[in-house]
Please model this.
Amino acid sequence: MMKANGGTGTANVASGNGGQIFLGAGSGSSVLAGNVNMSNALVEANAGQAETVATGDAGTILLSFAGNYTGNKAVLHSFSAGNGGGGNVTVTSTSGGDITLTDTASAFRNWSNGTGVVNVIANNITNNGTISSRAARVAHATPSPNANSGGSVNITAAGTLTNNGDINASAWSPSLEWISTNDESTGHGGNIKIIAGAMINNGSSGVEKAGRIYAHGGLNTQGATQGNGGNIDIDVTGAFSDNAFSKIDSRGNPVNASATNGDNRVSISAGNINVNGRVNASGFYANDPGGYVELITTSGDLNVNSGSLVSASGGIGDVFNNQGAGGQIVLNSANNMTIAGNVTAIGQAGLLGGNIDATAAGLLLVSGTGILDTSGSSTGSGYNVISINGNSLSILGALTASSSVGQGGTINASINGTASTSAFNIGNYDVSGTASGGIIHLTADTLTNDIALNDTQTQWILESATGDLNVNNTVRGYEIDLVSNGATSTIDVNSSLTTTGLAASSNGGNITITAADNVIVDSGINFGGSASGGSGGTLTVNAVGDITINGAINGEGIMNTTALTGNGGTVNMDTHGSFTMNETGTISVDSVMTSDVNTPNANGGFVDIRSVGGLTINTAASGVSISSRGASFSKNRRTGGNGGQLTLTSTSSFIDLNDASGTGNYFDTRGGDTGRFGVSGDGGNVRFNYNTTLLIEGEDTSPTGSFLRTGGATGNKGTPGTDADLLYNGAIQ
Model:
């Protein structure tokens, strides 16, 4: 036993400071030669015990040696019993030897007011005991509670650090549960810095202080206030791994949770990382927000394996049901990444979810057991974001950014290569919200595989970075954006885009298609009101190249006894190339009456088509090519809906209306019919804007008959509506 303790104080006299103990260093002494073995040993440099807050500072212990150190039931301890300052405990092998703490009774530790430091330096370090710089407990704190914080722990292992024990820089709390009044603490967690060639963190089932790295903030009796969690920084050249029972934990109440200068931060950088246990920077109890977790590989893979937890979630609540907002998690792999465990930045009841950002230079796989969750439950939600980026993506697990109160969050998926089909399994995405759904943004160099996305609440943004965007399966949402950015890339809609309203009296959503080259619509685009009433949405198509319409475009409004509105939708198409609608293509923005209701909101919609390189419409094989009719009524004293408006513009070339083979009509903008004593709707205007020639080819050579039906309807013995205008600003051929 070796002691250099200060004297004990009384009620009127402060306790003394701890002394200094140098073994092999300092005061001109040389480094201890050979190995150092300590068994059943105690080395102390403590401040004296005090009956008041006036307390001495802990002393200094320095042990340096040329060989290996083995501690068996051996403790090096620098302790301040109250609010005194910390001393330093340093154990170092000067010639690259190893350090081993063989059992749970062995320790390097400093307890003080947050200023103490423990330094351990060697080649290989094996910790089966305790390496700690914790806050000192104030047995008779006046005033209460204890405000002492954790100190600093610095461990450097040129070889391998194997932690089977406890590495701790927490504020005082004898357990993770509520504690007695005398043990209340508002202190902050300290900082832990580990540098190693390789690191293994192994816990043991049922053993609290095994495989544990803690920098907790302090607790009080209700869990309502406590200190910030500290920072845990692990920098490993080679591999980092742990087992299922290991725990790396910096929980507390962060004032600032961020990558730099933040609280509650856990950062692990290694050549490759395998997480099997718990990496946690969550909030502790009442209203504690989540902290910041960062896992980075510098050369190899990053694996968050099944059964593991990486968390920056808000506090789980206390007896008063207080909770915290989610924090931030960053995962970055220099090669592949597999997420088979839980990665969570959840906002607990009433608060926002956090953010998760996962990036892999190779394949990013979320396996069937993998979960990424930033769900929240705040009326201000919609800020919870999941961003995943990889050379290729395979999403088989669950990505959740939902909100139980308010707007759903956002999922951004970016693929550096060609997207795999499994990346778009809609069953795995959830950005739902009680107010509205959130956004899912998928970006790839080329999106060519099947995209089967059938989610009614989601805004989908599908974007090709440099290649084509081919939609080969159904996309459903409340809003859809298709974008191709490649200079020669084409958007080809081979299957259904649907934003049709589903809830009673709900309006159709908006669809936007933007192409750096061509747009081809081979299948249906639907953005009408729900079957039980609602107005149509808006379809916007912009192309640098050509636009070709071969499928049916439907933005009809639906009127019935429950609907407040049922106007037709809006179509805006603009191309720097040519616009062509073939016989199989149709556009309908009619207002349709399914059951009579006396309302003025049953008008046809608007169609505006603009081109630079010419505009050609081949009349429909049957029916009407472009229709914007007002709704009709059969009962008395009803007012028919007005027809909509159609505008065709070709700024530098021709408009060609070709009826050579079709048997249908070109345009229909009639007002709706009415019942007895009612008033029919007015017809809608049709305008042609062109610089050269309007070509009317085929059977009909004048603007009548199958070419145009635009006058106010006569109705069933009702009053006809006003005829519409047919407007030209050039010659007709």
